[in-house]
């Protein structure tokens, strides 16, 4: 499986047969100015919540790729108003897709939509695909509900926000990695704005002290999972 980072919380997971894009926010992110979104391909687009820095390119990419959009029902309602019909609404439960199993899980955050309407609850996802279990936390603070994931899964990777202010910071993400019992963490939601800038070297060292690995791929970089 391959992971490609597009900045903020946007990334692509590629299996042998499917491409899953998450929280598409690229064209309005100055740090991702070298990414040509016209070349992005996806079979599915998973959306954690409706804030602009997670759905900025959602409609354009959904139209371009014809991907199915997976999100909380309120986000799906907004998406359909933009003319997107290939959708799959979820709430906090599981569903089996042709690429694997998705469980929508709790996140602590707010969740309005770009037009100011109600965006439902924010969420994260646990994916079982290609013989791996991967947790994408979405935008969230540290929450005790994360401990439940250690009872349900043996996570291979966790994709966690680490920028602070709006979400967990590095220290909280280390605690979260203990809660979910996962030793391989990919950081997202950092450096895009001044208020969420981090010391990347110090962040890696913080996870190293906890005997864990923190991956911080550059924007546009692809790593093997």
TrEMBL record:
The keyword Isomerase does not apply. Keywords: Hydrolase. Residues 7-189 form the Metallo-beta-lactamase domain. Pfam families: Lactamase_B_2. Signal peptide: none annotated. One of its GO terms (molecular function) is hydrolase activity. Belongs to the UPF0173 family. This is UPF0173 metal-dependent hydrolase HQN85_06570. It comes from Pedobacter boryungensis.
């Amino acid at each position: 499986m391959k992971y490609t980072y597009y900045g903020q919380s946007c990334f692509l997971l590629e299996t042998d047969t499917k491409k899953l894009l998450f929280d598409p926010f690229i064209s309005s992110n100055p740090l991702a100015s070298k990414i040509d979104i016209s070349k992005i391909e996806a079979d599915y687009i998973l959306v954690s919540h409706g804030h602009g820095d997670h759905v900025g390119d959602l409609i354009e990419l959904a139209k371009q790729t014809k991907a199915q959009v997976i999100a909380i029902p309120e986000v799906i309602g907004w998406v359909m108003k933009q003319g997107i019909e290939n959708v799959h609404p979820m709430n906090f439960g599981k569903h089996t897709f042709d690429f694997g199993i998705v469980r929508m899980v709790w996140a602590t955050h707010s969740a309005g939509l770009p037009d100011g309407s109600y965006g439902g609850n924010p969420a994260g996802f646990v994916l079982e695909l290609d013989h791996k279990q991967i947790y994408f936390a979405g935008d969230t603070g540290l929450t005790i509900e994360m401990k439940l994931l250690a009872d349900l899964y043996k996570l291979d990777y966790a994709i966690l926000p680490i920028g602070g202010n709006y979400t967990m910071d590095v220290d909280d993400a280390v605690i979260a990695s203990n809660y979910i019992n996962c030793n391989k963490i990919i950081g997202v939601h950092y450096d895009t704005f001044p208020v969420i800038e981090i010391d990347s070297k110090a962040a890696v060292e913080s996870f190293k002290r906890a005997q864990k690995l923190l991956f911080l791929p550059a924007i546009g970089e692809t790593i093997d999972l």
